[in-house]
User: Fold these one by one.
Assistant:
Number 1:
Amino acid sequence: MKKAKWTGILLSTVLMSSLLLAACGLQESGSAPAAGGQADSGKKDFTYAMSGVYKPFSFKENGNLTGFDVEIGQALAEKMGMNAVPITNPFETIIQGLDSKKYDSIIGSLTVTEERQKAVSFTNAYYRSGSQIFVQEGNTTIKSKEDLKGKKIGVVKASNYLDWAKKLTDEDKITTYDSDITALLDLPTGRLDAVITDQVVGLRFIKEGGGKVMDVGEPLSFDEQAIAVRKGDQESVDRINKALDEIIKDGTYEKISQKWFGRNILQKQ
């Protein structure tokens, strides 16, 4: 009886060990290591979040995450001697994900605002753009922000564009989206009268023939987008700023920006 008992325990232990090893070795495809972990290369991971639905900054193409923000993160990681690990997270909870240590930074076209500065620490700007109104091509009733009162406006959830929409129309006239592109695609359908989004995003959408859309009026604001880290993490701010300066000086930033936009989007408007 004793022999059988010990044999059963031994077999159970071996089986449990095998299962644990298998679990460690089987990581879901596309998932990222925990923030601050290390890849097999021995380099420390540089984990950075984005929505993944903000073309051309971050989006899926043939199942792979790509875009301007993805490549900027890769370039920064290389300069810092780290392993680039881009992670997607819904934009409306992207700062909460940072706080809960799902990732160590956000390279997700996060506009610097006074409210966000209370929640995160920002690096220097990594690109500049503006908040712009877009309407269906041929629309003659909306020519400036003054014409948006009572109009149906589409914006991305939890964005600074939502703040603009609340100032310019009634809240029940606002529709929120997970993606700016989805909102822009709704313009020709008549579901929306206008979309407020990033100027660069809208102009690229038009250039790529995404739909019969045009920009109207002056930009509502000129904004700086920066990389966010957890509040008070000055060491990360300094390290990322140093790497950002390096990719600007050696031409890497220019190359990435030209690839996606045909111009340098860090230059002042």
Note: The beta strands are 45-50, 59-61, 64-66, 83-88, 105-111, 120-136, 153-156, 174-177, 194-198, 213-230.
Number 2:
Amino acid sequence: MTGLRIVHAHGDRITVTETATGVDLFSYVYRPESAWEAPKPYLHPVRTLAGAVVTDYRPNDHRWHKGLQMTASHLCGQNLWGGNTYVHGEGYLALPERVGSMAHDGFDGIASDGSRAVIAERLTWRPYSGERWADEVRRIEVHDADPAAGSWALTWRSAVTNRRDEPLLFGSPTTAGREMAGYTGLFWRGPRSFRGGRVLGPDGAGPSLMGEQAAWLAYSGEHDGLDGHATLVFAHAPENDHTGAGGTHPAHWFVRNEPFAAVAPSWAFHDELELAPGATLTRRYRVVVADGALEREEIAEYLERHPW
């Protein structure tokens, strides 16, 4: 019988399993890791219903890339993303005094009714020096697991409240001066075999979608060790373009298929996003994980059948 089961290894991770297939869809790891990698929770391994892994973990080119995770590459001069920090005119530098964290504080709920699993969490965002800069209320819902169709989905909602007495400025390497490197926010790193994968949007295709706007973006790659392909569809909720301090701040896609597979609906690709003291920035995303290389028409039909 189709269903979702949760197993909580306290202090370490939460694993969600699809019971009909016996596949662990993902582990949500919340134990702290290396300070240089900006400790924060992440999903890895993420699997299709056929059991194929569609995330990478600590790849040798970027050790701080961990599956699917919330990031903040440039936040008021601090790096809550991990690793080296981009400095205009100097490139990427090892500046550990700028690397902060998104610390797990506690869970408000971990539950499954069989068809939907929910992880509700509280986190604190801190710079290297340890002050409380922001509180985050995070909710991850797993739903629409369909073994016959070979797909399942999660919805990720983050509400970040500024606890400083001055604005929080969300930026990216691009806002700091590096062209076409606007990564920040929810970030996915694909497995090594997904290099050179196919990128699709509603009206375009390929890495040229970097920095563009669209309601969704899909990435298809071919597995090592297991025959076949998988497709991940990333979509942002309609209200994302109309929430946040300073009025409308629409998302722009960060996407690469070389030299590695990565997707992020960036919060601050071209311009910084300013969050006033006490204000809350809320963003909601959907990630669909499907077996096979889905075509544009199939993706559009799926999203129409599963509205926000």
Note: The chain is about 5% helix and 45% strand.
